[in-house]
Amino acid sequence: MARGAPSPADQQVVGELAARGVVVTASQLEGWRRAGLLPRHRRRGLGRGIGSVVDAVDPVVVESAAALARHARQGRDRRLAVLDWFAEAGRPVQPGSVQVPEPPVSAVREALEWVVEGSVSQRLLEAARSAAGAGEEGQDALYATAARLLAARPYRGSAHPALVRAALLADEELPEGADFKDVVHLIAAIGLGPQEVGADALAEAFAAVGMFGLTVEDWAQMLGAAERGEGPPVEWELLGQEAAAMGAVARAGDEEFVRARTVLLGLQWFYGLYTMHALFMPETPALAALRGRIDDFGMGPLLDHVIALNPSPRQFAEGLMACLSPVFDGLYEALVEQLAADPGIFRIPGDETGAVGFMTTWICALREQTAAGRARTLQGEA
Description:
This protein is mainly alpha-helical. It folds into 3 domains: about 10-105, no CATH class; about 120-245, no CATH class; about 250-380, no CATH class. It has 20 helices and 2 strands. It has helices at about 10-20, 25-35, 60-70, 80-90, 105-120, 120-130, 135-150, 160-170, 185-190, 195, 200-210, 215-225, 235-245, 245-250, 255-275, 285-295, 300-305, 315-320, 325-340, 355-380, and strands at about 45, 50-55. It has a two-stranded antiparallel ribbon with strand order 1-2. Helix 4 crosses helix 18 and helix 5 (about 105-120) runs antiparallel to helix 14 (about 245-250). The radius of gyration is 26 Å and the shape is globular. The termini are far apart. The model is unreliable at about 50-55 (pLDDT under 50).
């Protein structure tokens, strides 16, 4: 074989992928291999001084190259391709398809750390830690930095699906969801200390997150009682540990990344069912029970913040890091248990057609609401 020429094994990989309509070159394969993303072909020794040979191309090499070809493209950072690949490898195998192999975990870790470094939450956390010990000037600088970062990426959560559904049925304005700008008080508490931030501001932050459905007044009462020693103390150290995404990524092992992906992809599905209630999805006892579990955990607003139903690679990475937390893992397990106890989520009571009847009912509801909306519009124009 001429020096620098593609190996017969790489030529075979190129040919197999070309037969599927996937275009890669031998130089791309070698580039991915040098980057640590593509395994080398397994070789068999021929004996002392004779060398080695590739007996057969490993299917893992072919499928890994196919995954990279799907997600890597000119001008795109390879770390984004790795995240897309990792997400794809965790999804169920479709009939007639081949299981997508896992990308190297070292590459997944590198991609996650890269996303963390550039995230707004990490930059806010670093600003908070830099402001520690700088008095009022440091606190003012932190809040100014927060206002600038949050203005560049404003975010307001969705309202509870039941409230949205009721508003749509009544032709009223849609309710507003949680405003996460107040969460900056929690970041400030991690960097400056809770005493510097104050119970009132922290109550606003916890209420903005929306956990447990508690109001600002509820949180203020609880935090005030903790400050006075009249209630359970708040373990602020745990909050700092949860916020340290970079540390969580560094500590996580291979199995924990895979588990976090299982939790994230599962919660995407459960949260999709939760939100579709707002869009007139037919009610069934099983669906109501799943939504009830989410509400019992008080996790609806947090899921709305963490879960994207069609995530970009960065959104997937941020969701994955959140799902390293036992909080999301515990919710996922509870929902899996609930689904096992009552799996008939698409079975309307009294309708023996099952999922077919469910979808028919849903389509009819959507058509009725669309027609009603048009009628109201025409009435308003008349």
